[in-house]
Amino acid sequence: MNKKILIIGSPGAGKSVLAKRLHDKLGIELIHLDQYYWKPNWIKPESDQWERTIQDLLKKVSFIMDGNYRSTLHLRLPIANTIIFLDPSRFTCFYRIIKRRLTKNREDDISGCEERISWDLVRWVLWRYPQVARKDILQKLKNLKTSNPDKTVVILQAKKEVDVFLQSFFKIQEMNQYYELRRNNN
């Protein structure tokens, strides 16, 4: 089984929650990029060190990898066979970030980094991400799909869409397992 699933989107989009749900069902290794990127007290790695880390992670046979990190999309998109872009509204993302901060409930707990909300994060989620990063990601996904039609690219905006996608995805997985068993028994 060679599944390489990327989940990308704004902070607060629900990447880690979706990744965990997929991991729980599929049993594929879960890689929360935030846990590899951030050092204690929110210290960023050097860019060349970060790229080496990504390259090492991409060598795994199968994975579910969540995290945006546009600077490494050029490495990750060609390797993945399924890319899920979570694209809820900026206000939904901002609400989820506040909720996560207040409840201190983060799916991808980052060791040594206390959950916080900075003005930089607020500006990023409410203005910069929708105006710059989102457009860039959509263009990259469009180009990827054009040049690699065999890749699965899914864009989900609402929680209900995520739920419907998961139900369909899991049903397809069950059908594939069934047919694989039948093929092996014949």
Q: Your description of this structure?
A:
The structure is a single chain. The protein is α/β, with parallel strands linked by helices. The protein is globular, with a radius of gyration of 17 Å. It has a five-stranded parallel β-sheet with strand order 2-3-1-4-5, with helices on both faces. The chain has seven helices and five strands, in the order βαβααβαβααβα. Helix 1 runs parallel beside helix 7 (159-185) and helix 5 crosses helix 6. It has one domain (4-185): 3-Layer(aba) Sandwich (Rossmann fold), CATH 3.40.50. The longest helix has 29 residues, at 119-147. The model has no long low-confidence stretch (mean pLDDT 89). This is AAA family ATPase. InterPro entries: Cytidylate_Kinase-2 (IPR052922), P-loop_NTPase (IPR027417). It comes from Candidatus Ryanbacteria bacterium CG10_big_fil_rev_8_21_14_0_10_43_42.
Report the average pLDDT across residues. Answer: 89
The first-level CATH class name: Alpha Beta
Spatial extent as radius of gyration: 17 Å
* Strand and helix order: EHEHHEHEHHEH
